Amino acid sequence: MPEIISNIQRYTTNHIEKYGLTMLQFFILIKLFQAKSSLKISEISNSLDLPASSLTEMLDKLEDIDLIKRKRTNDDRRVVLIETTKKSKMLHNQIAKTNLHFVSEILNRLDKGEKRTALKIAKILKEYSHKITEETKRDIGEE
Description:
Blueprint: H1 2-17, H2 23-35, E1 39-40, H3 41-48, H4 52-64, E2 68-72, E3 80-84, H5 86-107, H6 112-139
Antiparallel strand pairs: 1-3, 2-3
């Protein structure tokens, strides 16, 4: 199992780097797409467990290549919101398409019974990952 995880991580890292992104920059974009709206810098830094000061440089780079834009709120000019751009949405769709192809290649090798089993395992892993995330947040006092 460790070899499988290592190979998938290597594949993913190489795939993301082809787009000129680091994994951390990619995770920032994923957080923004998951939110489906703008996020405060503090919300991104908390969700990735990074200090806001470390995040600023990464956001600068993403802004330089037009993958995010910063926007100040009208209510409080001190608050900076981060949002995706058309370019990042196109990139997200391109990466999602490649990932779908990757998963399809795997699933096409399975018969119906194996696909049902794989789906059950995926659901269990997803539930467990959510449980671990919630326990970790509780342990460090984020809830």
